[in-house]
Amino acid sequence: MNSNLQKIKIVILIAFTVCAVAIYSFDTRLQGSATASSDGAGGGVSSAPGEADCTDCHDQNTLTGAFTISPPANYTPGQTYAVQVEHTTSDMSRLRWGFEMTALTAGNVAAGTFADTTGFTTSFSDSGRNYVDHTSAGSFDNTTGGAVWNFNWTAPATDVGPITFYAAGLQANSANGNGGDQTYTTSQQIPVAPVIVPDHDFSDFDGDGRADPGVFRASEGNWYIRQSTDGDKAINWGLASDLIAPADFDGDNKTDFAVWREGPPAVAAFYILESATNAVRVVQFGQTGDDPAPVGDWDGDGRADVAVYREAPGGGQSYFFFNGSLNNPGQNTTYLPWGTTGDRPVRGDFDGDGKSDLAVFRPADGNWFIRQSSNGQLRVDRWGIASDTIVSGDFDGDAKTDLTVFRNGVWYIKRSSNGAALYRSWGVSGDVLVPADYDGDGTTDVAVYRNGIWWINRSADGSTVAESFGVSTDKPIASFNVR
User: Fold this and answer.
1) Which residues, given as ranges, of the chain have pLDDT below 70?
2) Are 293 and 481 spatial neighbours (Cβ–Cβ below 8 Å)?
3) CB 3.0-4.6 Å disulfide test: which of 85, 270, 301, 307 passes with 322?
């Protein structure tokens, strides 16, 4: 009989040590009391596919609270993110707390790793999956109202597609029994972060991440490009009266040759030579008097969209028009009211979400009016005077367009990374501004074009490059970033 009782005690002890939070008392006829694992359950109880949850040990009861997880909205391969798990409730009988989380790919393979930032969590691996769990101190015994855990998650080194976080949580009553506890489960899927199209894609014709000096010779209709890896290139594309509109319209990370040709509605059009296939695409869009300055990625799919800005006469409402390339098989036009007579349109992604923002510079008062696509908020910022040249570029390398003007040989830059002013003396009045990322470091370089010579100040090392390419009457491609 005593031997049988010992076997029963061993079986019960093993069963209870896989549970997550609550402290139990075994039947005193077998043993006075014993404690289940209050410092986590070990792997396999996160509610992920093929796994159990806390009800494997705890009775389920009516839920009176909430259990939430807060992973990042998306992930960039190799980046580390802060993650939060939280219990909340107004039920004052909840006195002890726990959770377990894992992250998996669509094929249920471990995705990324967890790391502890406090003594309230413990991260570990089990059976090929990575987990994070509460510790004994992190069960917050005799705490009411809820519990919060914070820790880090590092994304996989490569794009593995959508990742799902699975978590199970327990709100226990700490009543020395497995009755009266509440088990919660939740999951949340996140995509890989969208590819941010950098400014140099508007003059990177060989796709090596570096802008290429290039010009449009209107008298011939020819483009001449000095590619940084593939040598010089010349192509006939456009008429003398066309406005250049270079951009990556096919999403292959190479700038496409493109022009916009004025005309009445249904006649004006973009003429695009896509670099991926050498296919010619003609998109009827806009009308005489429009400005193609807003050409850019308006929907965040990594491809530039045809777009124009139409200034209103007599103090009326101006508009931005674009045809999104994402989920728009009918090429429907989006038109957005923004700006008024006298405003200058500015191309740029001022909030770093990979989408072009509505933006104008108002010479009358020196203000920039920007509507951020990430949250729809209006940003008004005074920077510049009426006679300034307006520049589009990311001069601090944070994937956000900086407010920039050029005046009498000086670049006035308001860095988006910290709001600080940067003044760069580069060029003289009469130079054509050609800002772009010529050294491939992710930062726009200050540069000017003067009588066929490119004067570039490389941000990577501060060195100066003077390169002869073109003639004084040519239009430099990178000047598309300037108004």
Assistant:
1) 1-41, 175-178, 194-201
2) no
3) 307
Q: For residue 13, what pLDDT is reported?
A: 34
Q: How far is CA 202 from the centre of its chain?
A: 19
d(Cα 113, Cα 110) in Å, to the nearest integer? 8
Instruction: Give the angle 212-217-222 at the CA atoms, nearest 5°.
Output: 80
Tell me the β-bridge partners of 70: 84
Residue whose tokens read 């509605």? 265
CB 254 within 8 A of CB 247: no
Give the separation between CA 358 and CA 474, rounded to whole angstroms. 30
What burial class does residue 119 get, using C-beta atoms within 10 Å of its C-beta: 0-12 exposed, 13-18 middle, 19+ buried?
exposed
Answer yes or no: are the C-beta atoms of 239 and 221 closer than 8 Å.
yes
Strand partners for 192 = 75
- Return the C-alpha torsion angle 56, 58, 63, 65, nearest 10: -100
Q: How far apart are CA 122 and CA 384, in angstroms?
A: 53
Q: Which long-range contacts (CB under 8 A, 24 or more apart) does 324-328 make?
A: 324/298, 324/299, 325/249, 325/299, 325/301, 326/299, 326/300, 326/301, 327/299, 328/299
Residue with the two structure tokens 């036009």: 333
Instruction: For residues 250 and 272, give the distance between their C-alpha atoms in angstroms, rounded to a whole number.
Output: 10
CA nearest 91: which of 187, 28, 210, 174?
174
C-alpha distance from residue 158 to each of 75, 363, 378, 415 (Å): 10, 46, 35, 30
Residue 35 makes CB contacts below 8 A (sequence gap 6+) with: 23, 24
pLDDT at 257: 97
pTM: 0.63
Q: Which amino acid is at 326?
A: L
**Contact (CB, 8 A) for 182 and 170:** yes
d(C-alpha 168, C-alpha 40), whole Å: 12
Which amino acid is it at 380?
A: V
Is-contact 101 161, C-beta < 8 A? no
